[in-house]
Prior knowledge:
By secondary structure, this protein is α/β, with parallel strands linked by helices. The protein contains eight helices and nine strands.
Amino acid sequence: MKRRERWLKNVEVLREMAAVARQGWLIPQPSRTLKQHGDARHLVVFVHGFFASSGVFRPMAFALAREGLAPRQVHFDYTPIGGIERHARRLAAVITDARVPGPVIVVAHSLGGLIVRHAVQHLGLDVDALVAMCTPHSGTSLARPWPLRLTQELSPGSVAIDSLAATSHRLRRTAVTSVIAEQDVLVEAESASLAGSRVVSIPGVGHHGVLYSPLAWEAVRDAIRGATEAPAEGGRSSGEFEVGPDATIRDRAG
C-alpha cells in the first residue's frame, strides 16, 4: 500500500511539474483583451493569477469558444506590482467597456479571484457568476516572507483579506464556484473554499495543474450554463460538491 501511495504521489508531482512547464510556454503568449468568436449576449472573463498572464487560459478559453459556450471573451492582464484595488479598478473598467447586455461570468485563478471579489464587493461591479480556482480567500501564509505589496495583501489577516471577509455579503448576487485542487501546496483547501459557494474538489492536481484539468473545465461549463440558461425545476445552484469515482461532479449531500 505504501508503495502505491508513493507512486501516486510521484505521479501528482510530475503532473504539477508538467503544468508549470506548460505555463512557462503559455505565459509569454497573452491574449488580446477582447476576443469575439461569435454573437452572444453574455461575456466570459478570464483573470489569471500571480506572476502569470492571460496566456495560461488559452487552452480552456479556446475549448469553450469552440463549444459555443464563450463566444465573447475578455482576457484581463495585470502586472505583479501595485495592489488588489488598483487591478480591480482596471478590471471593472474593462468589463464595463465591453458593454454586454447579458450575464457576465468570470473565471479566475488564485489571486485573480480576490481581484474579482474586490471589484464586486467594493466597486459594485455586476458579476453573475464567478469560478474561483485555488483562490486564497483567507490568504496564504506562504506569501508572508515576500516584500511585494501584492504578497502582503495575500497574507492571512491583511487589510485586503479582512475587508473582503467583512463585506462578503455583497457577493450574494454572484453565483460563486470554489474549485479546490486537492494537491495544492500553495493554497490550503479551507482557504480556497468560500463560505456559501458551490465547492468542487478535484483530486490529483495542484495549484497550476487545475487550469488544465478537464474536471475543472466542466465546473466552468456548469457556471456558464447556470448563468445563461433558465434553472431546471428543483435544481440547486449552491452547495458542497465532489468528484465521484466515475469522474462526474456530484453533490456531497447526496
